[in-house]
Amino acid sequence: MTARDLPSEHMRSVALFLLAMSGISGCASSRLPRANGVDPNAQVVEGRLALGEARMQPALCQGTNVTPDYTTLDESAVLSFLKGVGLPVRLERARTDLVYVEVQINPETDEWVRLRVAVLATPVQAGRELHDAILQHGEGSWGIHRANLAVLGPEGTVDDIVRFMGKTRLSCWGVLTIAGRDDAFVVPGNYREL
Fold first, then answer.
1. Are 181 and 139 in contact (CB under 8 A)?
2. Strands laid side by side in the 184-187 sheet
């Protein structure tokens, strides 16, 4: 399927989403810093970190409600989750449909990770457009979606993305997708949406 085969409304929607996800204003580091003190092999089942094989450890989500969420959410959902994990967070509103949530992952070096949170109309749109944006950005791109939210993170290695999940537990909050060379891979965790 080519871009010409897609309905124009979908293409317009994807174009707006990609523009929003490109971080056009004041993006922090374009690379995901390594979360100190987190062993990536301990975050996945059997220490498998290869895309297509990696599955997040069930113990990572112990005590977290992983019931699928089909309500309409806004950025406060991800903000509340990260605060509940005990991480410092701050918020910057770029537009009504795009917010940056920054989370401090290494307090000793004052390293923050900027997440771009897009508020979309439906869960299907959030999942599809996050997938498209991840593929557009290429290998090392990743994101999380939950209900109608799509969260795009800065590029990183699989090891560093898994470390970040271990520190933030975001794979317990939403569905984690990571871009490989030619495709995007969902990394199974305890939170899933149909």
1. yes
2. 89-95, 98-106, 111-119, 149-153, 142-146, 175-179, 184-187
Check if the beta carbon of residue 74 is closer than 8 Å to that of residue 151: no
Transcribe 95-145 into DSSP letters.
ETTEEEEEEEEEGGGTEEEEEEEEE-S-HHHHHHHHHHHHHHH-TT-EEEE
Who contacts 80 (Cβ-Cβ below 8 Å, separation ≥6)? none
Expressed in percent and rounded to 5, the helix, strand and coil fractions of the chain are: 35, 25, 40
To the nearest whole percent, how much of the chain has pLDDT over 90? 71
**Which of 139, 141, 129 is CA-nearest to residue 97?**
129
Query: What does the alpha-carbon distance between residue 117 and residue 100 come to, in Å, rounded to a whole number?
Result: 6
Give me the residues of the chain with pLDDT under 70, please: 1-29, 194
Q: Using the structure block, give the residue that is written with the tokens 């987190």.
A: 38
What's the token pair of residue 189?
């965790």
For residue 58, give the DSSP letter.
G
Residue 21: what residue type?
M
* pLDDT at position 98: 85
- Among residues 112, 102, 138, the alpha carbon closest in space to that of 22 is found at 138
Is the distance from CB of 60 to CB of 172 less than 8 angstroms?
yes
Q: At a CB cut-off of 8 Å and minimum separation 6, what does 62 contact?
A: none
Residues in Cβ contact with 63 at an 8 Å cutoff, skipping those fewer than 6 apart: none
